[in-house]
Amino acid sequence: MAEPMYQTLLLFGAPGAGKGTQGKILGQIPGFFHLSCGEMFRSLDIHSELGQIFYEYSSRGELVPDDVTVKMWAENIRAQTILSLYKPHDDLLILDGIPRNVEQAKLMEKYIKVLGIVHLVCRDKEAMVKRLRRRALKENRVDDAKEEVIRNRWRVYEQDTEPVLNHYRSDLIHEVDAVGSPASVLQHVLEVVVPIQDTHFNNPIDGSETGPVKA
Ligand code: ADP
Fold first, then answer.
1. pLDDT single digits (tens) 63-111
2. Which of 62, 66, 100, 104 has most ligand 1 atoms within 8 Å of CB, for mutation?
3. What DSSP assignment string belongs to 170-201?
4. Cα gap 85→33, rounded to integer Å
């Protein structure tokens, strides 16, 4: 049997833009399932082979190789469905931190159907760097502890991740201002996300907008 296509919303934005914060909140709402690729990596046993690979790359602010990343992601999401933590028919999948480059976007095409992309936009790079340093102190993260690693993460974002936006149809992309309190950013994120969730709800098979209209 062919693998099912997971109807998906992508949270997109530079390091520090607040994807994780927004994703976590959305994940609390029934009908959404949030999966953060960075969190998936961080939860690995550091002594495992994959954990060591993750440490090696993330401590330099670099991306883990694409094949390893997408394979791990696909196995993880499958496991979540087997455990019924994620129910593809009921839940809209919210991905944050993946795909992180065009190659990953291509590798993931056989698994996901992207219904929309929320692009959290922040043009003030220095504000983002400050946010990341504060978070590093609070959460004990090796990748953001050093300013030079943060700057490298930004370089990787601009070089490899931003082009992912061109991979998708422009009408799928919704820009949301990332500056402001989590609640006010959430308000704008919900304006985008709620209609997309309705689309999924009305047609969980292929996500097209022509599905039956709710009574
Ligand atoms: P951010 O703070 O930018 O959201 P993440 O928590 O998503 O950072 O990721 C932390 C680290 O995990 C990255 O620097 C990278 O090494 C690794 N990582 C996360 N997602 C991916 C991915 N999709 N592809 C490759 N590496 C990833």
1. 999 999 999 999 999 999 999 999 999 999 999 999 999 999 999 999 9
2. 100
3. GGGEEEEE--S-HHHHHHHHHHHHHHHHHHHH
4. 8
Closest C-alpha to ligand 1, atom 13: 58
The model's pLDDT over 21-36, given as tens digits with 9 standing for 90+, comes to 999 999 999 999 999 9
Sketch out the chain's domains with CATH numbers. 6-202 (3.40.50.300)
Q: Are 33 and 84 in contact (CB under 8 A)?
A: no
Q: What is the pLDDT of residues 99-148, one digit of tens each?
A: 999 999 999 999 999 999 999 998 887 877 787 878 777 776 666 667 88
In this prediction, what percent of the chain has a pLDDT beyond 90? 67
Handedness of CA 166, 168, 171, 176 (dihedral sign): negative
Q: Are 34 and 86 in contact (CB under 8 A)?
A: no
Q: Is 179 exposed, middle or buried (0-12, 13-18, 19+ CB in 10 A)?
A: middle
Which residue's alpha carbon is nearest to atom 7 within ligand 1? 38
Question: Which residue blocks in 7-124 are alpha helix, DSSP H?
Answer: 19-27, 37-42, 49-58, 66-82, 102-107
Q: How many residues comprise the chain?
A: 215
| Residue list, ligand 1 pocket, CB within 6 Å | 15, 19-20, 37-38, 41, 57-58, 61-64, 69, 97-98, 100, 104, 143, 153
* Pair 76, 6: CB distance under 8 Å: no
